[in-house]
TrEMBL record:
InterPro entries: THDP-binding (IPR029061), Thiamin_PyroP_enz_TPP-bd_dom (IPR012001), TPP_enz (IPR045229), TPP_enzyme_TPP-bd (IPR011766). This is Acetolactate synthase-1/2/3 large subunit. Residues 406-533 form the Thiamine pyrophosphate enzyme TPP-binding domain. Pfam families: TPP_enzyme_C, TPP_enzyme_N. The lineage of its organism: Bacteria, Pseudomonadati, Pseudomonadota, Alphaproteobacteria, Hyphomicrobiales. Its EC number is 2.2.1.6. Belongs to the TPP enzyme family. PANTHER family: ACETOLACTATE SYNTHASE LARGE SUBUNIT ILVX-RELATED, THIAMINE PYROPHOSPHATE ENZYMES. Keywords: Thiamine pyrophosphate, Transferase.
Amino acid sequence: MVRSPQDRSEAAGAGEILPPGAMNGAESLLHTLVASGVEVCFANPGTSEMSFVNALDRVDGMRAVLCLFEGVATGAADGYARMAGKPAATLLHLGPGLANGLANLHNARKVPISVVNIIGNHASTHQRFDAPLTSDVAAFAHTVSHWVASSAGPRTVAADAARAVQAARTAPGQIASLILAADAAWLPAERPSPALPVIGPAPVSDLAIAQSARALRAGKPVAFLLRGEALRGRGLQAAGRIAAATGARLVCDTFTPRIERGAGRVPVERLPYRPGPAIAFLQGTATLILVGTQAPVGFFAYPDQPSELTPPGCEPLVLAHPHEDATAALEALADALGAKAPPSLSPFRLPDMPADGALTDEAVMRLVGRYLPDNAIVSDESITAGFPHYPLLETAAPHDCLQLAGGAIGDGMPVATGAAVACPDRKVVSLQADGSAMYTLQALWTQARERLDVTTVIYANRAYKVLLDELRFVGADRAGSNAFPMLDLHDPVLDWVKLAEGMGVEAVRVDDTRGLDAALKSAMGQRGPRLIEALV
């Protein structure tokens, strides 16, 4: 058995002569990751990663979580980091395995959040033969990564891993991808590397604080657009004090990675999705103060619609860039304004019970709000089904809400999975559109295997509903018998009960409010993975 570095040192001090090469590259890598605070690895390994897999039995401190699709592994790493405040690793197999995970790495990059990808590659001696799985792994990695490196050999693997973790943890969070050739993993290495310093958020300049204070004192309408640390904890409290003192509006991006919501939290308005409503929503605002985000732009271009959503006459003003300390900036701004009074908080008031009868999107959200337990985590990829009814959870029990950050659908269930691994003592509720759920339904298997406390509510409207809306907005509403089947999920109908049960998750189908009421009551009263297919 390969010993830990401490055991080796003690043994050497006792006069034992250690054999050369007693630790291989994979073991030095794992020791370094654990020492650097990376304690979870979401993995879908292949042949090139077998030395890493084997090392899991000889290096303590790493929890390996098997995912049946790489997009689940990368999305789970995103959800874990959002809730844990530190990175997880992924273990991916060569270029094709990485390619399978790119969509949710794109989403993680847009959060932005910390992820350390360990990507296996062919042994260096084998790469010149252009074997079937040979590809330009680095080229794939660069499309979604802030930092990419390939280990030159087993003696540099540990140092490379320490640099990867440091890069990932650089504020506000980055995607770091370390490419590990198979022989660099199996050949002898010397030792692990110690953790490198975390590069935290930069301070905000006094000028930025003074400019924002001046705008707020000018007496013209001001709104804050908030993201990141500004939407929870001390940052949100400081923003609430500023709003209470000045009358400024608090707004978050349409899709924000994590926000504290519910009773006892500072209420924040959500920017509408469509360009026209978003511009109207901000109309009359003289200054839009940006905290951890950019000025709003449309998700897509539409005929005769602007891409920039800042209305005419509104001037964007940056208080804190994403890499800067938004919490400290908001607290300093509150102090500069003398905003000492406590902020207004959302009261605790359960949504009204929906009327008996067939389920609607609104009825689903009302019932979720009634049963949501204290301190729950909501992973929301309900898209068009849930967006209009988002305000219904404003006065529900306090919770964290995680949303689709990068627009690539299929992250809802993986993010819920990672969040449940990070916070095993908190109930996770996954609000999931049926079309996007099919991208990464393998997350259910991981939830069952790891016995995660996740309740998934599928909005089963049997369509890509958002794309039906998009037809109209791009002026293609004359689509007919050839176009509409591209957006329809009937013939055959997806059976989510069978899909879930086939992966070990207890499931039930409901089509009226009484059925959903009973199903949610049961799911919230028990631990473990459950799925509710809500026919809407």
